[in-house]
Amino acid sequence: MRLIWLRHGETAANLEKRYCGHLDLPLHEQGFQQADTVAEQLAFLPLTMVFSSDLLRCRQTAERVCVHHPGVTFHTSSLLRELSFGEWEGLTYEEIRSRDPNRLHRWIKDPVGVAPPGGEGLNQMGERMKRWMKTSLKDGAGDGVYLIVCHGGPIRWFFSDQVRRDHSSFWDLSIPPGGWLVTDWKDGKWVAAENPDTVSGKKGKR
After folding, report:
1. In this structure, what CATH number is given to the domain that contains residue 57?
2. pTM above 0.70, yes or no
């Protein structure tokens, strides 16, 4: 089983470096261009199925990819949503730092034990991601190439929890809007693909 993790294209809030969380925002012009670019990069992949967060920015990105894969089943799920930032949603880092610097510092230092006010901790997001994996991926059972269109937080969680098995590495991974990463199920565990550029025959944007 191979998973291709694709972050949605850019929104106006991303451009302004705002925490989007569960806000249901559309792509802006650049975001649609990013979605079209990655759709072309992945056009020759033999996709088995496409999964997407139910938030608009992910659905719009996934729909652009699906144009090149007629007949491939497309599922959406709220379990694939970004981390909920609660009272911080819609704010920039600087705005949060000016309003709640102590909690911001504690959250960055310990995203597992500390949550944004009214939002989710990393473990809470992880529990819903595990529920999604159990029901949708059957814990790695079966073969195929699956595209998962979601957000930076869930992708970071998957790599820190399932691949590196080290939550302290959560902040290490940076993936831009329209960027993608690849993981494979091997010997009963998830591993980063050794040569992900071969998936589409072109160099992927990461």
Report:
1. 3.40.50.1240
2. yes
